[in-house]
Design brief:
Layout lengths: L2 H18 L5 H15 L5 E7 L5 E6 L2 H13 L3 H9 L1 E4 L9 H9 L4 E8 L5 E8 L9 H46 L3 H15 L3 H20 L1
Antiparallel strand pairs: 1-2, 1-5, 3-4, 4-5
Length: 235
Amino acid sequence: MTQTSTTRIAAVVAEAARRINVPQSLQERLAAIVPVALSAVPGFDHASLSMADHNGQVRTRSASSGLVEKLDLYQYKTNEGPCLEALRGSGLVLVPSVRDEARWPRYIARAAEAGITAQMAVHLRDDAGVRGALNLYRTTGDGIDPEAPDLAALFAAHVAVALGRAHTEEQLNTAMETRKMIGQALGILMERYKIDEVRAFGFLTRASQNSNFKLRDIAREIVTQANTRYSAEDA
């Protein structure tokens, strides 16, 4: 690769990274990645983002069209295909010609029937627990642009970091909201039953254990009921 190509690739990826790193929620960032990927990586017409949850279940979190959502789903259903191959740690999975591809016979037959001519999937992973794949699909023309793999790999590295940061921020926000909700519920219980904080917390814990609901859900229900009662009294 020439120095000019390397410089151009770096510039393209830097711009793409800037666009997905604008402060936003995790879901907003997920939605932004797909269109940015299509503008950053040449030669592809559709894209999607597959993510695995903590139980290992994979689902599509963002897609440019219903076509690729269906193809993603078929890969999950048959447990084969470039998306899952990349997600499992194969790095960069290239399918320059769908009609000549011998791997994943069930999926490839479905992809060819849907009009896919070439495909690429890139592994996503970071230290914050993000695990997924960026999937790129081609329906017009054949082959994979020579610069596309390098661009996709660099872009995927930025995506993983961005998603990891957003995931961590979301977890922190959720933890803060949970602490606030539990604190409000404790205050309500202490006032209602004239008990101290230790006994109020014990009340919440027992209610959670006996009902199999999470502590934050019990707390949220107590706060919701109190707000409803206060609103009715003020009416």
